[in-house]
Amino acid sequence: MFANSVQIIILLGMNRGDIINAQWERLQPLLPSQQPKTGRSSVDHRRILNGILWILRTRAPWRDLPERYGPWRTVASRFYRWQKAGIWNQLLAAVQAQADAAGQLNWDLYYLDSTMIRAHQHAAGAKKGTQSPKPLAGAGAGSVPKSICAPKGVAN
């Protein structure tokens, strides 16, 4: 069975990690229209999504995106435009709602809070807001002493 699925993926021109047909059928209705109201039609959403997934999976820079996913600038601009438009949040909410309606989510099992997420090393211990500057060590050198102490004189 494994060999057959690999052969099918190769025949379809898909790569490991690309969106399979069942996933695409679930995501396609949730995406913006392929044909905008004005201008030319968009590059295939499936190819763009596969490119974005490749970037997220490999953590490579946009410029290293393989050519099979299209120009890296197109993939990157679609990612950032969808992020700005809130498309990713809508996709997540819709897929979660579908899975929840089908009884595929156990919310008690998949609970996540901030105590489970490690902060960046530079995020620890810094105080928020504006800080009042600390006085310099030499700032008090010319001021009046806080205690009066007579200099020790020569013994009589």
Shape: elongated
- Briefly note the structural class of the backbone: mainly alpha
Biggest β-sheet: count, sense, barrel? none
What percentage of amino acids are in beta strands?
under 5%
Q: Averaging pLDDT over every residue, what do you get?
A: 78
Based on CA atoms alone, the radius of gyration comes out at 30 Å
Helix content: 25-40%
SSE diagram, text form:
Elements: H1 2-11, H2 21-27, H3 45-58, H4 72-85, H5 87-101
Helix pairs in contact: 3-4
Question: Which features would summarize this protein structure in a list?
Answer:
single chain, 156 residues, mainly alpha, 0% strand
What do these coordinates show?
This protein has a domain at about 1-30 and about 45-105. It is about 40% helix and about 0% strand. It contains five helices and no strands. With about 160 residues, it is mostly helical. The chain starts with a helix and ends in a 55-residue tail after the last helix. Helix 3 (about 45-60) crosses helix 4.
